[in-house]
Amino acid sequence: MSSTELPSAPAASVLPKVATVRVADGERLRSVGLPGITLTVRSRQPAREGLPPALYVHGLGGSSQNWSALMQQLDGDVDCEAVDLPGFGDSPPPDDGDYSITAHARAVIRYLDASDRGPVHLLGNSLGGAVTTRVAAVRPDLVRTLTLVSPALPELRVQRTAVPTALLAVPGVTSLFTRLSRGWTAEQRVRGVMNLCYGDPGRATPEGFRNAVEEMERRLQLPYFWDALTRSARGLVNAYTLSGQHALWRQAERVLAPTLLIYGGRDQLVGYRMCQKAARTFRDSRLLSLPEAGHVAMMEYPEHVARAFRDLLEDTGTGAGEPAVRDVAGVGSAGDGAVTENAGS
After folding, report:
1. Considering the chain, what is the average pLDDT of its residues?
2. Which domains does the chain show, CATH number per domain?
3. Rg of the chain over all Cα atoms, to the nearest angstrom
4. Which of 13, 160, 279, 337 lies 20 to 30 A from 329 at CA?
């Protein structure tokens, strides 16, 4: 494995020059070369030595930036790293053009094997939830705990609001959409994404909105942006059709790691009703319900997600052995109606 520090995260030299990736205070980026892929990894300096490692995996169309707020909340509890999956964020496309769930899971496994950081606390959102579920099922030696925020696991009845995203997997739809949306500004696109992914788009700060617009402008310059998005959507839909031992729900049954499940009551992409099925399927699970949250609870309610994650570390004895300073107020103390429960095994 080769690793190169990226102070301002320039694009790979073989690709057209585009705007640089935003790096928040306390973060750094580095490029990691692995067989067939190059991954960009975002990290924070841990508050002290000896903290257990954690790895965050983003969702469809997202990037490691989606985890910045939660990473800042947890830098006193775990040694935080977030990966840009191949073709997303600042990671170039994979050499073989494979964007299946299996390929994304293979990329995560290759990184963990090469970095020798495992076992890690593994966290995934949406597409990243499907990817990390597969990683935890096939390589339990790499995973201490699993935290899933609105994981994209198969649903029999897909929400109407999720249909346009699923349609990206249909050949020709992406080309049609890009033609129809050619005149849209980055601001319009970001507002559309936030309206879809946030329970309350008003929770995004002006700074957060500006950063998202800058990132959208940068991504639209990438020649592979739509291809990576389309092929990953297709890979997710294809994974939903698999049966037998490769089926995602069957793999969820095989996960041995203590699992924290987080679902938003206003999620327009993953049905809130799926939280109970997930709680029954993952054998050692805990459920955090956030009725006011949407699809990206770690961005809308990072403090609540962080508190539930700390509880997971405490309950399972998988922390660093030194208790972190914690807010003792209940998860629902901010008036969001949060509900926590231990789903058990």
Report:
1. 85
2. 2-344 (3.40.50.1820)
3. 19
4. 279
